């Protein structure tokens, strides 16, 4: 058999791609997300190779380097296989819709080159537009009498082209959501679309398993939403008061004066109390602890005994100095 130039199309038997089988919209969008993540990953790995060089070494040529890396990915993915990395992971590949045949047809050479140009070119031009204007003397530093009208006109044209492109992309995406084909304007222009590389097997999953998974997924989301709203400190205080109804906090201020151990640590942070204050129970708090928690929780209660926090009052201790040398 004589070989043809370029990529070899897969066999057109029953196991080959079937252009008549519709591709899920989510599969096509996931392929785009995977390609974007791959581009960012390749750039991060490439830039890390120069992390020990002078800072900002790659900044002047960053758009060109990104375009070069994208072209390298295109050369080893789309050009030989008619599929990006993301499409390969999603069991997809490009199909030439301009062909009159009902069977699968790989992309033509013109379509491959057009895909590379329309994918890499606009990104590079968007990042380099400001530098190009400066190189042509049309930047902000140009002389207004000499090129003011030309600069303003060129900027308006660029703004108009950018706006029209964004509107066209939006319309194309809405059409894609309606019909499920051509998620990007580039694919619609070139006449290509994604098809399944291999026939999709029917997934045999029991409804009980699916229902159980959906139930647990919904329950997990409910807990993620509910837990930040639960005041765990109040629950702990309530449980503590139920288990120990006669806590150490019933001694009041007398317990502190009598040398009880409750004043040796803050009831909130557990450390030696800084600027010790009391709030109506027999426990001592750091001034900043009780103030900050009172601002965050208007109904703050003592975590030791469950008493509602009242006005913070400074603890006054009687210190007796004795002469250790006196016998």
From TrEMBL:
GO MF assignments: ubiquitin protein ligase activity; zinc ion binding
Signal sequence interval, chain numbering: none
Enzyme class: transferase
E.C. designation(s): 2.3.2.36
Gene Ontology process terms (BP): protein import into peroxisome matrix
InterPro entries, alphabetized: PEX2/10, Pex_N, RING-HC_PEX2, Znf_C3HC4_RING-type, Znf_RING, Znf_RING/FYVE/PHD, Znf_RING_CS
CDD domains: RING-HC_PEX2
Organism superkingdom: Eukaryota
Record's protein name: Peroxisome biogenesis factor 2
Species of the source: Oncorhynchus kisutch
Keywords, alphabetical: Membrane, Metal-binding, Peroxisome, Protein transport, Transferase, Transmembrane, Transmembrane helix, Transport, Ubl conjugation pathway, Zinc, Zinc-finger
Catalysed reactions listed for this entry: [E2 ubiquitin-conjugating enzyme]-S-ubiquitinyl-L-cysteine + [acceptor protein]-L-cysteine = [E2 ubiquitin-conjugating enzyme]-L-cysteine + [acceptor protein]-S-ubiquitinyl-L-cysteine
Pathway stated in the Swiss-Prot or TrEMBL entry: Protein modification; protein ubiquitination
Membrane topology reported for the UniProt record: Multi-pass membrane protein
Similarity field: Belongs to the pex2/pex10/pex12 family.
